[in-house]
Design goal:
- By secondary structure, the protein is of the alpha+beta class.
- Helices cover about 35% and strands about 30% of the residues.
- The chain contains 6 helices and 11 strands.
- The strands form 2 sheets. It has a 6-stranded mixed β-sheet. The chain has a 5-stranded antiparallel β-sheet with strand order 1-5-4-3-2.
């Protein structure tokens, strides 16, 4: 059986923030490792088993599924009183509407979940690196970016003992990059674009532009407020000691 409903999502929440809240709800509903998720630009599909998802796709997306399946679609063009519409569909194996009350309960729980920010900041210091994780899970891998204080000694080499750096995994860095990309492309030959695989040296005036953009992002991404605030305070404190901060990716 298929059940459909629409939820009005407040327009001040970015699509990224809304998706984070939906994913958090799904983890709470299914359990961390007990569902398969497919995400596109404006939709999220989640089902208890990967095989059930492809079975549903190959059958032409019928109104019944062998396992419980959620489909969330953001209707970007439609607004009601300043709200974006989120269409929610729930599929199961039933032939009738005997589980309608269950679906209504699920929708009620999801609405409540959508009203609250997700706070999941994990901070670990390892020697001279502070690892900051928000939405990254260990199973996501080790691709990420290091932020390091930079200054040169009298020989033009990287000065030692400048302070502690930050390590941000890729899953969390993409939000920071929304601000970093404000200072790119650059006019310096060979350094025009941000390098995900190498070293990027960013000056104090450029960091002021980035910090200003992060402050705006925090308003529309309340789940990331603590994360953006922590990284911003580290940048501000570091720039009191040096004039540049380098970002190095290991992609």
């Amino acid at each position: 059986m298929r059940y459909d409903t629409e939820i009005a999502c407040t327009s001040y929440l970015t699509l990224h923030e809304q998706k984070l809240r939906i994913k958090s709800f799904l983890v709470e509903y299914f359990g961390t490792a007990n569902f398969f998720l497919v995400e596109t630009g404006f939709s999220i599909t989640a089902v208890q088993e990967e095989a059930a998802f492809f079975e549903w796709i190959n059958a032409g997306r019928p109104n019944r599924t062998t396992k419980e399946l959620f489909l969330f679609k953001w209707m970007e063009q439609e607004r009601r009183s300043g709200h974006f519409l989120l269409k929610c569909s729930f599929f199961n194996r039933s032939e009738d509407n005997s589980r309608q009350k269950q679906f209504e309960k699920i929708v009620s729980q999801m609405k409540e979940h959508m009203e609250h920010p997700i706070l999941t900041l994990d901070i670990t210091q390892k020697e001279k690196i502070i690892e900051v994780r928000q939405f990254h899970h260990r199973a996501d891998g080790k691709i990420g970016y290091g932020l390091y204080p930079y200054a040169e000694d009298e020989n033009g080499h990287w000065r030692k003992n400048l302070g502690t750096g930050l390590w941000i995994y890729r899953e969390d860095f993409h939000l920071l990059y929304e601000g970093i990309k404000e200072v790119y492309p650059r006019k310096e030959t060979g350094f025009e674009d941000f390098d995900d695989t190498g070293m990027n040296f960013i000056s104090k005036p450029e960091w002021k532009v980035i910090l200003n953009h992060w402050a705006k992002l925090a308003i529309n991404n309340p789940s990331s407020l603590e994360f953006l605030d922590y990284v911003s305070r580290w940048v501000i404190a570091t720039l009191e000691q040096v004039d540049e901060i380098a970002i190095e990716g290991n992609l």
